[in-house]
Amino acid sequence: MSPPAVSAMGKQAIRDIGARYRQIVGLKPGSSSIRTPEMITELLERLIMGESVTSICCSDHMPALTTLWYWCRADEKLDDDYKWAQAMGQRTLKDLEVDIASGGVFSTGDARRDELLIKVIDKNASQRNRAEFGERVQVEHSRVVVNMPDWAVSVASSVASPPPEDAGDD
């Protein structure tokens, strides 16, 4: 299969995911577009517990995802609170990994599903909060040697050196 065909399939899958999301959200009786302090508090608390914003916005009494994005765009404090709550949610999920891995109460009971869940949590946290959970990258500096032709070396050294002082014209 040619690369353009594979690319077209990927674009179609993305369109299909968007259509599926709209279909699921369309099954809601109606999302709330009236913002209340209680709604925002619940939204932030659920984000802190690690629930995805997509899942939260599928609840009947919550705003549609696009409505939330417009609210965040218009209200810098809400946007900051959202980002903070989401970062805390990543920490919560990272804490739950230990419980999942040890077969605790948050484990699904299926080792393969738990392994996938841990991988998804790791990937999501490392992408959203690179400073805390991202991979460390060590950068080494090295000296660069540039080989220049002789004429370039003489031009460069004549420009870099100060002009000679006149020694005997008094």
Descriptive overview:
The protein has helices at 3-26, 37-48, 53-57, 65-74, 76-101, 111-128, 130-133, 150-160. It has 170 residues and is mainly alpha-helical. Helix 2 (37-48) runs parallel beside helix 5 (76-101) and helix 4 crosses helix 5. The longest helix is centred in the middle third of the chain and has 26 residues, at 76-101. The termini are far apart. The model has no long low-confidence stretch (mean pLDDT 78).
Brief characterization of the structure:
This protein is mostly helical and 170 residues long. The protein is built from eight helices and no strands. The model has no long low-confidence stretch (mean pLDDT 78).
